[in-house]
Design goal:
With 324 residues, the chain is of the alpha/beta class. It is 35% helix and 19% strand.
Amino acid sequence: MRLSLARRQLQIAQIGSKRYFSQLKVVTDASHPQLRHAVLLYQDKALRHRQGRIVVNSNRLIDQYRRSGFKLISYLHTPQVMLSQLPLSFAKAVAKHPRVCVSEELLSMFTNRLSLPDGVAVLERDCKPSSDPSFRPSHLTSKLDTLPKLDDQSERHPIIVVLDALRDPGNVGSIIRTAAAFDLAGVVLLGSGCDAWSSHCLSSSAGTHTQVPIAHYRSLDDLVASLQNQTEAGINALLMTSTSNPDTPCEDLFLHAWQWHKVNLLVLGSEQAGLSTSTVEAACLQADDAVTQRLLSLPMAPGVESLNVGHAMSMAVAVAMTKL
């Protein structure tokens, strides 16, 4: 009975899809209002944050973010994409919202890869809770860069990954994915690094942005001040650095005694620049009874200057998990 009902629903979706595509006009002009709006959001970080909207360039991720509490605003696709090819609930949602069929050339503006996106959508953060149990809607807020109070994250491991001006969205997305997998308290981006909510970063995280709190702060000082207002627990700032500098005394990551009664800030810089001077100085100046500071390093073979920042973060968190 259920199977026949599902087939009937699929037939209805296919009929609606054929009617829609039989009257289809392919947009080839980049000045089309909905296309232009999507392009501006794709390119402009400030506009995305002002409007609370994101641009996602994969049908699988579009459906995932839609189910996790994002509101579908518009949908772009090529003539080859039929609604009947989409999951039924996704196809119904798309059918209720503005959708534009565009040429492959125009849709290629939404990717920096050789492969063409199978769909592009503009989505808006919706504060209403999701009914999907696989997502955690309590972590969704009206802002795209809000770190929930630590009191609300008691079930999470008290590690906040702090990224010091990282500019590679692929690395940032990978770190967000790992933080979600280990159920960490959050990911914070410092300074003028890449936007965690860019399309490239959303793709690199494989749709896990809704699984872990994400925030932006101007500096480590601002982050520590904010955390001190939220919690009475101490703060342990752990700065990951390279072993290539013999003048910098570092503690071996594998020997570090993690302080689980405190909030642990795992601070990482880029592979090339490492941690900024201002961040290191801020950590040293903040050090007192309430804020402790350590320099950690991963032991590596001679001649190897650094690891990929995402790999270094994964190893550090994995080591921490073994000491729970």
